[in-house]
Amino acid sequence: MKPDVLNSLFLRSYRDARQRFLSLTQERGLSVTTHDLGVPGRDGEALAMDVTWDGPVDASHVLLTTSGVHGVEGFCGSGVQCGLLASGVELLKDAPDTAIVHVHAVNPYGFSHWRRVNEDNIDLNRNFVDFDQPLPQKPDYAALHALLLPMQWPPSEANEFAMRAMLTEWGPRRAQLAVTGGQHGHADGLFYGGLKASWSNRVFRSVLRQFTVHCQQLAWIDIHTGLGPYGVGERIFACNDGGESLTRARRWWGEGVTSVTTGSSNSIPMTGPIQMAVDAECPRVKYTGICLEFGTVPSAQMHWALRADQWLALHPGALPAQAKQIKADLLAAFYPDSDDWRQRVWAQSLEACAQGILGLQSDD
Ligand SMILES: [Zn+2]
Q1: Contacts of 167 (CB under 8 A, 6+ apart)
Q2: Of 172, 191, 309, 356, which shows the fewest CB atoms inside 10 Å?
Q3: Could you tell me which CATH number the domain at 3-131+191-296+335-362 has?
Q4: What DSSP assignment string belongs to 229-272?
Q5: Cα-to-centroid distance, 364 and ligand 1 (Å)
């Protein structure tokens, strides 16, 4: 795709991204179901999760794409969804009884405000837990919390020294799990899973139930950014069981599909990812899915940007220049502004979607 065309799809505000998404559905004559969050966005705009259906309404094969589960990462996912809409009927031309469903901005608040979390500081990929059961205790996170989010920003050398000492003692995997695995004990902390199902959780579950009425086979590509080498789309297995569906995912998307449970992924097992909703809301559907995770900046830089942004959320009185820099750094960590990155994202996403559609045809 030419850079100017890509630039018209990959935008830099939620309002523009949503408008582009909606106008493309209109051009294609596709209907949209809008779920309003009911609070205004950064620029006063309406915030919503928008769902569109491309293909036969009673299709038994469905490819689902989702953008913005992690708010600010939605710029990338929205660009991909817009590209797929702009590609028109091309993708589905040899795929009878197949539709593509796009869920745009699962977390519209974070998308608009350039945050990874939602309006309640919840990381949606840690929020799909069973809240009727006791919530997991995360003593490692609790030990780190005050060091991750000190009173002053940037943190003191002593703070960083103490934090690094703790992480080094634990080793890389325990350290990554401690920080990013998800926690329910610190509502003002990082990777917070919440104490009840968030708005996005409830709405997304209802969306899943509605569009899978006729669906027998579901392929899902959930688009994320921030982990792994720059411009590389890691295909992370995202089903709840590791047996038949992992074999199927590797048949569709290649042997390179990674797994968080075996340690082959840049990511780690987390409590309550959004994919938990499939078994609960549409258990009869044969489901195969991946997270498509695009690398951006080195992980140390990404974590620094996340800590800074969380500090800013807790210190709204920060100097405007500092606040502006923190937001710019956060966007850069999840959405690099370069033609080359966008080009690589688009090519790999298009390939993964085409493979998903092919997989749906081949695996009845
Ligand atoms: Zn993400």
Answers
A1: 144, 175, 178, 179
A2: 172
A3: 3.40.630.10
A4: EET-EEEEE-SS-SSHHHHHHHHHH-TT-B-TTTT-SSS---SS
A5: 30
Q: Residue 208: its pLDDT value, please?
A: 97
**With 90 as the cut, is the pLDDT of residue 266 above it?**
no
How far is CA 55 from each of CA 4, 109, 217, rounded to the nearest angstrom?
Answer: 28, 29, 15
What pLDDT does residue 265 have?
A: 76
- Please name the residue that has the structure tokens 């009869």: 284
d(CA 242, CA 348): 24
CA of 56 to the centre of ligand 1 (A): 30
Report which residue type is found at 172.
P
Percent of the chain with pLDDT over 70: 99
Q: How far is the CA of 29 from the centre of ligand 1 (A)?
A: 31
pLDDT digits (tens, 9 = 90+) for 61-100: 999 999 999 999 999 999 999 999 998 778 999 999 999 9
Q: With CA atoms as reference, report the closest residue to 363 among 214, 248, 250, 243.
A: 248
- Taking the domains of the chain in order of start, what are their residue ranges? 3-131+191-296+335-362, 139-180
3-state secondary structure of 130: coil
Task: Give residue 96 CA to ligand 1 midpoint distance, Å.
Answer: 32
Instruction: Quote the pLDDT of residue 13.
Output: 98
One-letter amino acid at 309 equals D
Q: List, for residues 137-166, the tens digit of each pLDDT value.
A: 999 999 999 999 999 999 999 999 999 999
Q: Determine the distance separating the centroid of ligand 1 and the alpha carbon of 302, expressed in angstroms.
A: 12
| pTM score, whole prediction | 0.97
Residue 115 CA to ligand 1 center (angstroms) comes to 11
Mean pLDDT of the region 258-273: 80
Q: How many Cα atoms sit within 13 Å of 360 on the Cβ side? A: 30
Ion ligand 1: residues, CB < 5 A? 70, 73, 224
Evaluate whether 185 touches 136 at the Cβ level (below 8 Å). Answer: no
